[in-house]
């Protein structure tokens, strides 16, 4: 797998499950930059360092960043205006 290629949100289904302890790819996130609402599975995922990044498919803004360090996941959700698990 080429980690420089963008994937979709399904690529981090397991990671999100680990963090939120629930199925999150079907959760609807609202982009803080453009206001578009979409399931996290529809986002654009980059697995490159530093960390794992989920970007808005509409405008490219960073919605979610996960940094895994010392067996802990640090999650930055500042790019999301709202996040609603389904
Ligand atoms: Zn956006």
Fold and architecture overview:
The model has no long low-confidence stretch (mean pLDDT 92). A 5-stranded antiparallel beta sheet has the order 1-4-5-6-7, with no helix packed on it. The protein has 1 helix and 8 strands; from the N terminus they run E-H-E-E-E-E-E-E-E. The chain starts with 6 loop residues before the first strand and ends with a strand. The radius of gyration is 12 Å and the shape is globular. With 86 residues, the protein is mainly beta. The longest helix has 8 residues, at 13-20. It has one helix at 13-20; strands at 7-8, 28-31, 37-39, 44-46, 52-55, 62-69, 72-76, 80-84.
Key descriptive features of the protein:
globular; mainly beta; binds zinc ion; 3-stranded antiparallel beta sheet; 86 residues
Q: Can you count the beta strands? A: 8
Average pLDDT, rounded to a whole number, is: 92
* Main sheet strand line-up: 1-4-5-6-7
N-to-C CA distance: 30 Å
Low-confidence stretches: none
Largest sheet: 5 strands, antiparallel
Helix percent band:
under 10%
Proportion of residues in extended strands = 35-45%
Small ligands present = zinc ion
Would you spell out the secondary-structure blueprint of this structure?
Layout: E1 7-8, H1 13-20, E2 28-31, E3 37-39, E4 44-46, E5 52-55, E6 62-69, E7 72-76, E8 80-84
Antiparallel strand pairs: 1-4, 2-3, 2-8, 4-5, 5-6, 6-7
Zinc ion binds next to loops.
